[in-house]
Amino acid sequence: MKKLTNNAGFSMMEMLVTLLILGLVAALGLPSLNEFIEGNRLNAALADLQSAMQAGRAEAVGRNAYVTLCKKNADSTDCVTDGGWQQGWIIFVDVDGDGTVDVGDEILLIHEELLGTLTFHGTAGVKDLITFRPSGQTSVTSLQTLILCDARGFVADAKGMVVSIMGRASSMSATSTAQVSCLIP
User: Fold this and answer.
1) What is the DSSP letter of 117?
2) N or C terminus of the chain: which is more exposed, having fewer CB within 10 Å?
3) Residues 99-122: what's their mean pLDDT?
4) Bridge partners, residue 93, by sequence
5) Is residue 177 very low, low, confident or very high in pLDDT (cuts 50, 70, 90)?
6) Does residue 8 lie within any of the structural domains?
Protein backbone atom coordinates (compact mmCIF):
# COMPACT_ATOMS: atom_id res chain seq x y z
CA MET A 1 0.00 0.00 0.00
CA LYS A 2 1.21 3.43 -0.98
CA LYS A 3 1.59 6.06 1.69
CA LEU A 4 0.08 9.47 0.83
CA THR A 5 2.19 12.49 1.67
CA ASN A 6 0.81 15.91 2.33
CA ASN A 7 2.71 18.40 0.17
CA ALA A 8 2.41 21.91 1.55
CA GLY A 9 3.43 24.62 -0.91
CA PHE A 10 2.99 25.82 -4.47
CA SER A 11 3.93 24.17 -7.68
CA MET A 12 6.24 25.99 -10.05
CA MET A 13 3.31 26.72 -12.38
CA GLU A 14 1.21 28.23 -9.58
CA MET A 15 4.12 30.41 -8.51
CA LEU A 16 4.71 31.71 -12.06
CA VAL A 17 1.03 32.52 -12.57
CA THR A 18 0.95 34.38 -9.23
CA LEU A 19 4.07 36.38 -10.13
CA LEU A 20 2.65 37.19 -13.56
CA ILE A 21 -0.57 38.53 -12.05
CA LEU A 22 1.36 40.51 -9.43
CA GLY A 23 3.56 42.01 -12.17
CA LEU A 24 0.55 43.05 -14.24
CA VAL A 25 -1.15 44.71 -11.26
CA ALA A 26 2.06 46.60 -10.41
CA ALA A 27 2.57 47.70 -14.03
CA LEU A 28 -0.97 49.05 -14.21
CA GLY A 29 -0.85 50.68 -10.78
CA LEU A 30 2.50 52.52 -10.91
CA PRO A 31 1.51 55.15 -13.49
CA SER A 32 -1.58 55.95 -11.42
CA LEU A 33 0.56 56.23 -8.29
CA ASN A 34 2.97 58.61 -10.06
CA GLU A 35 0.08 60.79 -11.24
CA PHE A 36 -1.33 60.78 -7.71
CA ILE A 37 2.02 61.91 -6.29
CA GLU A 38 2.42 64.64 -8.93
CA GLY A 39 -1.12 65.85 -8.30
CA ASN A 40 -0.48 66.03 -4.56
CA ARG A 41 2.75 67.94 -5.16
CA LEU A 42 0.84 70.51 -7.26
CA ASN A 43 -1.93 70.84 -4.68
CA ALA A 44 0.54 71.25 -1.81
CA ALA A 45 2.56 73.94 -3.62
CA LEU A 46 -0.59 75.86 -4.52
CA ALA A 47 -1.89 75.60 -0.95
CA ASP A 48 1.47 76.82 0.40
CA LEU A 49 1.40 80.00 -1.69
CA GLN A 50 -2.28 80.57 -0.97
CA SER A 51 -1.56 80.22 2.78
CA ALA A 52 1.35 82.64 2.45
CA MET A 53 -0.99 85.17 0.83
CA GLN A 54 -3.50 84.78 3.65
CA ALA A 55 -0.73 85.16 6.22
CA GLY A 56 0.64 88.25 4.47
CA ARG A 57 -2.79 89.85 4.33
CA ALA A 58 -3.48 89.05 8.00
CA GLU A 59 -0.10 90.46 9.05
CA ALA A 60 -0.71 93.67 7.09
CA VAL A 61 -4.08 94.20 8.74
CA GLY A 62 -2.89 93.11 12.20
CA ARG A 63 0.22 95.29 12.16
CA ASN A 64 -1.46 98.14 10.27
CA ALA A 65 1.56 98.11 7.95
CA TYR A 66 2.60 97.19 4.43
CA VAL A 67 3.56 93.52 4.10
CA THR A 68 5.10 92.11 0.93
CA LEU A 69 5.18 88.57 -0.40
CA CYS A 70 7.86 88.10 -3.08
CA LYS A 71 10.03 85.58 -4.90
CA LYS A 72 13.17 85.17 -2.82
CA ASN A 73 16.84 85.29 -3.69
CA ALA A 74 19.18 82.36 -3.01
CA ASP A 75 19.99 83.38 0.57
CA SER A 76 16.38 84.36 1.44
CA THR A 77 17.23 87.96 2.29
CA ASP A 78 15.63 89.91 -0.57
CA CYS A 79 13.24 89.81 -3.50
CA VAL A 80 14.22 88.95 -7.07
CA THR A 81 12.69 89.66 -10.46
CA ASP A 82 14.14 86.68 -12.33
CA GLY A 83 12.83 83.12 -12.27
CA GLY A 84 9.49 81.92 -11.03
CA TRP A 85 7.72 81.47 -7.72
CA GLN A 86 8.99 77.86 -7.63
CA GLN A 87 12.32 79.20 -6.31
CA GLY A 88 10.58 80.02 -3.01
CA TRP A 89 9.27 83.18 -1.40
CA ILE A 90 9.51 85.42 1.63
CA ILE A 91 6.99 87.53 3.52
CA PHE A 92 8.29 90.67 5.18
CA VAL A 93 7.04 93.84 6.87
CA ASP A 94 7.71 96.43 4.18
CA VAL A 95 7.98 99.62 6.26
CA ASP A 96 8.13 101.97 3.28
CA GLY A 97 5.96 99.80 0.98
CA ASP A 98 8.53 99.78 -1.84
CA GLY A 99 8.63 96.00 -2.36
CA THR A 100 12.27 95.58 -1.36
CA VAL A 101 13.78 94.37 1.90
CA ASP A 102 15.41 97.41 3.50
CA VAL A 103 17.11 98.01 6.84
CA GLY A 104 14.38 97.87 9.47
CA ASP A 105 12.13 95.52 7.46
CA GLU A 106 11.36 92.29 9.30
CA ILE A 107 11.25 88.97 7.40
CA LEU A 108 8.28 87.04 8.77
CA LEU A 109 8.33 83.85 6.71
CA ILE A 110 10.70 82.04 4.37
CA HIS A 111 9.41 79.30 2.07
CA GLU A 112 12.10 77.20 0.46
CA GLU A 113 12.28 76.17 -3.19
CA LEU A 114 9.55 73.85 -4.44
CA LEU A 115 10.70 70.29 -5.10
CA GLY A 116 10.43 68.49 -8.42
CA THR A 117 9.89 69.92 -11.87
CA LEU A 118 7.32 72.54 -10.90
CA THR A 119 7.02 75.90 -12.62
CA PHE A 120 5.03 78.71 -11.00
CA HIS A 121 4.61 81.97 -12.92
CA GLY A 122 2.29 84.94 -12.63
CA THR A 123 0.79 87.63 -14.84
CA ALA A 124 2.30 91.13 -14.73
CA GLY A 125 0.70 92.23 -11.44
CA VAL A 126 1.93 89.17 -9.51
CA LYS A 127 4.98 88.25 -11.58
CA ASP A 128 7.46 89.13 -8.82
CA LEU A 129 5.62 90.27 -5.70
CA ILE A 130 2.35 91.13 -4.00
CA THR A 131 2.19 93.93 -1.45
CA PHE A 132 -0.63 94.00 1.06
CA ARG A 133 -1.70 97.41 2.33
CA PRO A 134 -2.72 98.01 5.98
CA SER A 135 -6.35 97.69 4.81
CA GLY A 136 -5.66 94.18 3.49
CA GLN A 137 -5.99 95.24 -0.15
CA THR A 138 -3.21 94.30 -2.56
CA SER A 139 -0.97 96.29 -4.83
CA VAL A 140 -2.66 94.76 -7.89
CA THR A 141 -5.11 96.89 -9.85
CA SER A 142 -7.03 94.06 -11.52
CA LEU A 143 -7.47 90.31 -11.21
CA GLN A 144 -4.10 88.59 -11.62
CA THR A 145 -3.29 84.93 -12.27
CA LEU A 146 -0.60 82.51 -11.17
CA ILE A 147 -0.14 79.22 -13.05
CA LEU A 148 1.48 76.14 -11.49
CA CYS A 149 2.59 73.30 -13.78
CA ASP A 150 4.72 70.18 -13.53
CA ALA A 151 6.56 68.15 -16.18
CA ARG A 152 3.22 67.17 -17.74
CA GLY A 153 2.71 70.78 -18.84
CA PHE A 154 -0.48 72.78 -19.21
CA VAL A 155 -2.98 69.96 -18.93
CA ALA A 156 -6.06 69.33 -16.88
CA ASP A 157 -3.83 68.76 -13.82
CA ALA A 158 -2.11 72.18 -13.97
CA LYS A 159 -3.31 74.61 -11.28
CA GLY A 160 -4.24 78.25 -11.35
CA MET A 161 -4.75 80.90 -8.71
CA VAL A 162 -6.55 84.20 -9.21
CA VAL A 163 -5.60 87.08 -6.91
CA SER A 164 -8.09 89.91 -6.38
CA ILE A 165 -7.58 93.55 -5.52
CA MET A 166 -9.06 92.76 -2.09
CA GLY A 167 -6.23 90.30 -1.39
CA ARG A 168 -8.20 87.11 -1.78
CA ALA A 169 -6.73 84.17 -3.69
CA SER A 170 -8.93 81.55 -5.36
CA SER A 171 -7.47 78.31 -6.67
CA MET A 172 -8.79 76.40 -9.67
CA SER A 173 -7.75 74.30 -12.62
CA ALA A 174 -5.34 76.23 -14.84
CA THR A 175 -7.59 75.61 -17.83
CA SER A 176 -10.34 77.57 -16.03
CA THR A 177 -8.21 80.73 -16.08
CA ALA A 178 -7.69 83.02 -19.06
CA GLN A 179 -4.16 81.64 -19.51
CA VAL A 180 -3.20 79.06 -22.14
CA SER A 181 0.28 77.93 -21.10
CA CYS A 182 2.55 77.31 -18.12
CA LEU A 183 4.98 80.08 -18.95
CA ILE A 184 2.90 83.22 -18.83
CA PRO A 185 4.32 85.90 -21.14
Assistant:
1) S
2) N
3) 93
4) 67, 106
5) confident
6) no
Task: State the pLDDT at residue 5.
Answer: 64
The CATH number for 28's domain is: 3.55.40.10
Specify whether the CB–CB gap between 74 and 82 falls below 8 A. Answer: no
Instruction: Give residue 167's pLDDT.
Output: 87
On whether residue 81 sits in a domain, the answer given is yes
The mean pLDDT value of the chain amounts to 88
* Structural domain harbouring 153: 14-176
Question: Do 74 and 61 touch, CB atoms closer than 8 A?
Answer: no
Q: Are 82 and 128 in contact (CB under 8 A)?
A: no
Q: Rounded to 5 degrees, what angle do the CA atoms 37, 40, 41 make? A: 85
Which one-letter DSSP state was computed for residue 138? B
- How crowded is the C-beta side of 135, counted as CA atoms within 13 Å? 5
In a domain, 165, yes or no: yes
- What is the reported pLDDT for 146? 93
Q: Is residue 182 part of a domain?
A: no
Report CA dihedral (39, 41, 42, 48) to the nearest 10 degrees: 140
Task: Give this prediction's pTM.
Answer: 0.81
- If one counts the domains in the chain, the total is 1
